[in-house]
Amino acid sequence: MDSSDIQRKNIAVIGGGLVGSLHACFLAKRNFQVDIYEAREDIRVTKSARGRSINLALSYRGRQALKAIGLEDQVVAHGIPMRARMIHSLSGKKSAIPYGTKSQYILSISRENLNKDLLTAVEKYPNAKVHFGHRLVKCSPEKGVITVLGQDKVPKDVTCDLIVGCDGAFSTVRTHLMKKPRFDYSQRYIPHGYMELSIPPKNGDYAMEPNYLHIWPRDTFMMIALPNTNKSFTCTLFMPFEEFEKLLTSSDVLDFFQKYFPDSIPLIGKQALVKDFFLLPAQSMISVKCSSFHFKSHCLLMGDAAHAIVPFFGQGMNAGFEDCLVFDELMDKFNNDFSMCLPEFSRFRIPDDHAISDLSMYNYIEVTFSRIRYHEAVLHWYWQKKVINRGLFLFGMLIAVSGTYLLMRYKSPRPLDYLRRPLEWVIYFQNTTGFPVNSLESLERTPNVISK
Amino acid sequence: MDSSDIQRKNIAVIGGGLVGSLHACFLAKRNFQVDIYEAREDIRVTKSARGRSINLALSYRGRQALKAIGLEDQVVAHGIPMRARMIHSLSGKKSAIPYGTKSQYILSISRENLNKDLLTAVEKYPNAKVHFGHRLVKCSPEKGVITVLGQDKVPKDVTCDLIVGCDGAFSTVRTHLMKKPRFDYSQRYIPHGYMELSIPPKNGDYAMEPNYLHIWPRDTFMMIALPNTNKSFTCTLFMPFEEFEKLLTSSDVLDFFQKYFPDSIPLIGKQALVKDFFLLPAQSMISVKCSSFHFKSHCLLMGDAAHAIVPFFGQGMNAGFEDCLVFDELMDKFNNDFSMCLPEFSRFRIPDDHAISDLSMYNYIEVTFSRIRYHEAVLHWYWQKKVINRGLFLFGMLIAVSGTYLLMRYKSPRPLDYLRRPLEWVIYFQNTTGFPVNSLESLERTPNVISK
C-alpha cells in the first residue's frame, strides 16, 4: 500500500480505554485516518466512574509496546517499581520473593493516568480524533459501516475501511462477530469476586514497604496491595462470592479480617474498612475466549474484547498491549495490507492469547519478564528443569489425574464438565496433592525461571 | 397461584418453531394468557424456506411430551417407524441393527408437518395467540417488556409476566441474558458441515426399505437417509468443510460418490445429485451450552435456545420437547409459581441438557428408548455390564488418555485446549485405539442397552 492509499483509509477504533487508545497511536503513526469512539466522557475532564481496577501491573510486554510509540519513559516515570512480592503470613511475618534479578521489576501504574497519557498521545496526531460520549449501537463489518450514538441521541452512520473492537470484555463489536459463520466463543465467570480497599498514607509516607506487590495468600481467598504515587496502597480482596455473602454486618467484616488478615486492620483502619467493604458489592471476573479475532479484512478484535482473562497473572493489560505490537509488526511485514494482516493476526496471536488465558487460570508467574510468545512459555513451563526434576511429583499428578478422571466420571453428575475447567482441576490437584498450585505460596517453590 | 391469578398472567413465547409451539400448548392448557411471537410468516400458508433439516427422528422423550398435550397419536400417525439402522457398506452390503426389541422403533417425522400440527393445536386454545411475522428486537426481562417488530415495521412494546425464549440456536432472548451477571456461555462450531440430498420414489414406491434409518458410515464422513411419507428419502451427508471444499465440479462430486457411496448414485440419480449438491452450500453445526437457563422469575430459555446440540444422537428435538415436559412437571410441583419453577428448572435440567450435549458429541445411542434422565444415562453408559466386561479396553483407554494428555501437553501449541474438546478426544481415541467411537459402525459392538 503506498502512502496516499494509507492516508485515504479510515479506521474506526471502538473504545478509548487502554488498548483502544494505544492501538490508535500505532495506527495514526502509520498515517491512517483514525477515529476513536468512546462511550464515556473524556476522563481528563470529568471524574471517572468506579468499577475498574484502580492500578495495574505493567511488565515487559506492555513496556515494549509503549516504547514503540515513544511513551515508555513517560509512563515508567509515573509508575512505582515493585521488585518483589511481599508475602504476609497469618502471623504477620513478611517475606520477600524477588521477581527476578536485582534489576528486574514490574511497575504499579494508575489505570486512569495511563489512559489519560494515551489519550493525550493519540490526540497529538493530526490524523487521529477521539469522539467522546459516542456509544457504538451497531456495526456492519461487511458494509464498512458503524452506527454510533452521540450526545444528540441521533444514531449516526459512519463508513470506514476497518473496524477495530477495543471495547473490552463485554465488547459490542464482538457480539456482532458472534453471528458470523463459525465464530467460536465462550464466556465463563469464576466463582471468585473481588473488592477494592485502600491503605492510606501514614505520617505522610507509605504505611508499608512501597516497592513490593504485597500478598496475603489464604487458601481459597487472598488479598493483594499495590502502591500508588500518592503514597496510598490499593488492596484487592479476592474471595468466592459465597464467602462474601456471609459477611453481612460490620462485625462480620472485622471478625473476618481479624481472623485472616489481622495485620491489615490497623493499616486500612477499622472505620474505613467497614465503610469501603459495603460501598460496592464484590465484582465478578469473566474469562472470555473466541476464535477468530478478525472478520475478513473488515474487522478486528483486540485486548479484552478478544480475550478477557482473569487477573491472577497480572497480564491482562500487558497481553492487550502486546496485541497492538504484534499487529504493528505484521503491518510492517505485509506492507499495511489488511487482507493479509488480519487473518495472520488471528492465526499467529490466538494460540498465545488462549495460552495466557490458561496461564492466568493457573496463576503461575514465570513469564512476566520476557517477550517469549505465551504459548512457548506454556511449553517451557513443563519442560523446565525444575519440573523435570520433579518427575516424581508429576508421576503423582498423573496418578491423581487418572484417579480424578475415573472418580469424576463415575461419581459426578456432570462427569465430562470437569475436563473443561482448568481452575477446578487446579483446585482439585491442590486439595488432592497438598501442592498449592493455585496459591501464590507456590511461588516459593517455583521462583521465576524464564527471565530475559 | 389460584386460577384467576393464572388467567391474569401473560406469557410471551419467543419463537413458534417446534419447541415454542409445544411449550405454548403446555402453558395455554394451564390457562395462562399465551402470546407466541414468530419472525416467519405462517408456514401453513406460505412456503417455508429451506435451511433446516426436512425430517427428524422422534423418539420416546418427544412422544411423552406430545402425549401430555394429547397430540401423540396424531403425530405418530404421520410418522414412519424406523425399527433398525440399515448399515450400507462400501461394497453395497446392507446389514440391519435393531434399535431394541421388536416392538421398539423411532419415527421419521416431517419437521414442517409437525410444526403445522403444533401451531394448529396451540391456536385451539382461546387464551393463546400466535403473532406471525413478528420479530423480537429487544427484551428487558427485569421490566417484563419485549419489543417486537411486525409487518408495519414500527417497534411495539409488549408487557408480560414471563418471557420464554424458544428462538433456537441463535436465540435473541439468550443474547440479552448473556449480559446478565455471571451467565456462562459457549458456542462451538464443529469442523463438519452437512448437506441434504434426496432419493425419489421408484415406480411409485420407496427406492429402499422404508422402515429403517439408512446409514453409510465412512470414517470422518457419513451419509444417512430417513424416509418421508411421499415415499422419498431425505439424505444428509456429513463431512468436514475442508472435504466439501474439495468438490468443485460435477465430476468431482460424481467421482466422490462413486468412491464412497456407489450404491447411492442410482438411487439419487446422477443429474439430481449434481444439481442438489450445488444448490446450497454445506451448512454448519453449532453446539451451544449456557448456564443458567433462567433469569430471576422473568425469563426462561428452552430447546435449542438453551442447548443447541449436534445432531448425531437424533435427540435435539426430543431434548427440547422433554424440556417442556420437565417444566410442566415442575409447574405441578410448585403450583405454577414462577419464582420456584424457574430456578428449579435450571438446577434440575442443566445437568441433563449438558449431558445430552456431550452424548451427542460422543454419538452413542443407548438412551433413545427411555425417559431415564440424561445425566444418569451417562453414568449407565459407563457402569453397564458390557463396559465393565470391557475392563481391559478401558484400561487401554486409560493408558491412551494418560499418554494423550502428556503428549498433547508437550507437543501441542495449545496444550490445554484439547482437554475441552470432546469430539477431538473421541477422534483421537478412535485413531489411537482403532475403536471407532465416532462412527456409527460402533453400534455393532454396542447395541442399545437401556430400554424401557
TrEMBL record, chains A, B:
Family annotation (PANTHER family): KYNURENINE 3-MONOOXYGENASE
Main location per the UniProt record: mitochondrion
Membrane spanning stretches: 392-410
Name of the protein in its database record: Kynurenine 3-monooxygenase
Xref: InterPro entries: FAD-bd (IPR002938), FAD/NAD-bd_sf (IPR036188)
Function noted in UniProt: Catalyzes the hydroxylation of L-kynurenine (L-Kyn) to form 3-hydroxy-L-kynurenine (L-3OHKyn). Required for synthesis of quinolinic acid, a neurotoxic NMDA receptor antagonist and potential endogenous inhibitor of NMDA receptor signaling in axonal targeting, synaptogenesis and apoptosis during brain development. Quinolinic acid may also affect NMDA receptor signaling in pancreatic beta cells, osteoblasts, myocardial cells, and the gastrointestinal tract.
Localization in the cell: Mitochondrion outer membrane
Span of domain FAD-binding: 11-324
Single GO BP term: pyridine nucleotide biosynthetic process
Cellular component, GO annotation: mitochondrial outer membrane
Keywords: FAD, Flavoprotein, Membrane, Mitochondrion, Mitochondrion outer membrane, Monooxygenase, NADP, Oxidoreductase, Pyridine nucleotide biosynthesis, Transmembrane, Transmembrane helix
Originating gene: KMO
Catalytic activity line of the entry: L-kynurenine + NADPH + O2 + H(+) = 3-hydroxy-L-kynurenine + NADP(+) + H2O
Cofactor(s) of this protein: FAD
Single annotated GO MF: FAD binding
Domain of life: Eukaryota
High-level lineage: Eukaryota, Metazoa, Chordata, Craniata, Vertebrata
Membrane topology term: Multi-pass membrane protein
